[in-house]
Amino acid sequence: MHFDISLPTASPMATPELLAAVGQEADRRAIHAIWVPEHAIELADYGSSYPYAPDGKMPLPPGCGMLEPFTTLAFLAAHTTTTRLGTAMCLLPQRNPVYTAKEVVTVDWLSGGRVDLGVGVGWLREEFEVLNVPWPRRGPRTDEYLEVLRALWSDGEAALDGEFFALPPSTMHPKPIQQPHPPIHIGGESDAALRRVARAGQGWHTMNRPPEELAGALARLDELLGEASRTRDDCLVTVSPYFLPLDADAVERYAEAGADAVTAFLLAFSPEDVEPTFDALQPLIDRAQRC
Questions:
Q1: DSSP track, 188-238
Q2: pLDDT tens figures, 43-94
Q3: How far apart are CA 257 and CA 133, in angstroms?
Q4: CA 288 to CA 281: how far, in whole Å?
Q5: What is the distance between the alpha carbons of residues 73 and 22, in angstroms, rounded to a whole number?
Q6: pTM of the predicted structure, to 2 decimals
Q7: Is 203 left (phi over 0), alpha (psi -120 to 50) or beta?
């Protein structure tokens, strides 16, 4: 099983020196992937409920904000050689899909074909409002934007006249190093998210799910993949325990339940913290790589 890390890119802690140290140490420890999050703005007050915290609030200290994900991944590409680089999650329906396609393919190009695009439909209605993007029907918007990305990444001329976006005949270069395109991972816990995986994903990210609940969700995913004439052989299942405890035994239980990768939070706040933080994770890394 792969061992990944989730890197909270909160300022002011996520300095260039910290990011460089994380990338170099991830390569040295044979970490499979580094995942970074996305939120464009911080709101002092919001009514939307963060789905992974009991109080419904995102655990971001006052005065902190997340770095832009694709800029961060491009920086990490310069400080890694083997570790994969991904978004968990890119909030695709609140973005311009043409620029997103360009940013993803640029990181793919600069990293030598090591980028993974994790996408989510979003949970923070107020952020959509700030960005002047409609909140209703963000799921279908996500599906259509994925079509735009795939069309622009493919050979030849792309065009699409959809409900949410009109793309006149266009081409985009460079083309992805990874063919037919960088892997698309779908994040989310709902049945709608699993259906999106079956239709359009090369991976599924699930968060805050204990090992004993994973097998049932994967049985549903297998059912939906079968309806799409697919199997889990072409779908990487990544589990982020997030607020749940993670030790070496839990890593093994996730593997037994069917996970292909497990993601641990890397809570390092200075370059000097990076090596000791990885040292603490090393027993988990070793157990994952033996599974």
A1: -SSHHHHHHHHHH-SEEEEES--HHHHHHHHHHHHHHHHHTT--GGG-EEE
A2: 989 999 999 888 999 888 888 999 999 999 999 999 999 999 999 999 999 9
A3: 38
A4: 11
A5: 12
A6: 0.97
A7: beta
